[in-house]
Specification:
3 domains; elongated; 53% helix; Rossmann fold; Zinc Finger, Delta Prime, domain 3
Length: 367
């Protein structure tokens, strides 16, 4: 993976590029980014840049023998560590799954990965056997390049086992680089954090998510922009939304608001049937849109500035609602939608859930 393949992150790319070009790469880096920011993809691109034999215009060439092997994730000097399930199960047991998953979506989240390897309801971890294996691998000489590189995805899953790696992180063998790719700094041992140089990977902008969707998924700019508004800088979430059948959530949501405001029981019950027929994933996407709309509506009502993340028709509707929905109602409506999402995740009866939500929404709008 080349830097040019990673969406956005121009600042982080520039910093990593300067480190490599000046040959002043810290022995341990911590790339800290929000879910879907591309920190894992960025780590692989950096590893490829370091190993590339023919760097060109600030990027790996993508053609040399080293690049070819990194692209396929089969380079003998590039090692991966990631959460698995089981007391003695290591990353080596799932390398084939890992290569497939990374080829499909290097922006994946940990739940997607764990379900791919059959975790079901089990917790993922990076265990003792994994740590012992890492120490053994990095003690060997490089096979092809001048550098050995370990990319550990989500060191948060190390727990106390991270203590086994402290000496390795502080004093790694010559020409050895360790890249930790994390999302939650608070779950990492302070003794590990103190031994790493932090590189912050920013959340993607809506424009970067939109451009990524247009480029990678060949979506129209309008559809990509709408999805980007919902994704909130999480490209993995944007891909999940794009994978669902296209639904006009805007029209459905506004129709729901109107019918709940009017309070016609028959129409509210009929709309409940519509919601139930959407299916769980589309229901979650609908509620995500509803929460997005309310957030932007509150911003519009607070500032009066129409530069909010709403499409033209959505903005017009939001402006018309200003006489109906006040600040107190916004808070109650947002809580209602969050509660609905929570219960859908836990397989609540969908008809009863949306019927109850419709009745509560009517009371809130009429308050």
């Amino acid at each position: 993976m080349q830097f040019s393949s990673v969406i956005g992150q121009s600042q982080a790319k520039a910093l990593l590029r300067r480190m490599a070009d000046s040959e002043r790469i810290p022995h341990a880096l911590l790339l800290l980014g929000a879910p879907g920011s591309g920190d894992l993809a960025l780590a692989v691109a950096f590893a490829q840049y370091v190993l590339c034999q023919n760097k060109q215009d600030g990027d790996a060439c993508g053609q040399c023998n080293q690049c070819s092997k990194v692209e396929k994730l089969i380079h003998p000097d590039l090692h991966f560590s990631f959460p698995t399930v089981g007391t003695n199960v290591t990353s080596d047991s799932h390398l084939a799954d890992w290569r497939t998953a990374m080829a499909e979506n290097p922006y994946m989240d940990v739940n997607q990965w764990l379900q791919r390897i059959g975790a079901e309801n089990k917790q993922g971890n990076i265990n003792k056997e994994e740590c012992v294996g890492i120490i053994r691998k990095l003690s060997l000489k490089a096979f092809e390049g001048s550098n050995k590189i370990l990319i550990m995805w989500l060191p948060e899953y190390l727990g106390k086992e991270g203590n086994r790696l402290l000496k390795l992180i502080e004093e790694p063998p010559d020409d050895t680089m360790i890249i930790l790719v994390a999302e939650n700094q608070e779950l990492i041992l302070n003794t590990i954090l103190s031994r790493c140089q932090l590189v912050k990977v920013n959340r993607l902008s809506d424009e970067e998510v939109e451009e990524g969707l247009v480029t990678l998924k060949n979506l129209s700019s309008e559809k990509a922009r709408s999805i980007a508004h919902l994704a909130g800088g999480d490209f993995n979430e944007a891909l999940n939304i794009a994978a669902q059948p296209l639904k006009d959530n805007s029209t459905l949501f506004l129709d729901w608001l109107r019918k709940c405001y009017q309070g016609n029981g028959v129409e509210m019950a009929t709309l409940t049937e519509t919601f139930a027929g959407l299916g769980r994933e589309n229901q979650k996407q609908f509620l995500q849109y509803a929460l997005h709309f309310m957030r932007e509506y509150m911003l519009l009502k607070t500032t009066g500035n129409d530069q909010v993340r709403l499409l033209p028709e959505e903005l017009k509707t939001a402006q018309n609602l200003s006489k109906i929905i006040g600040f107190g109602q916004i808070e109650r409506i947002t809580k209602l939608f969050n509660d609905c999402s929570f219960h859908i995740e836990r397989n609540a009866n969908q008809k009863l859930l949306f019927l109850d939500a419709s009745i509560q929404l009517n009371k809130i709008l009429r308050a």
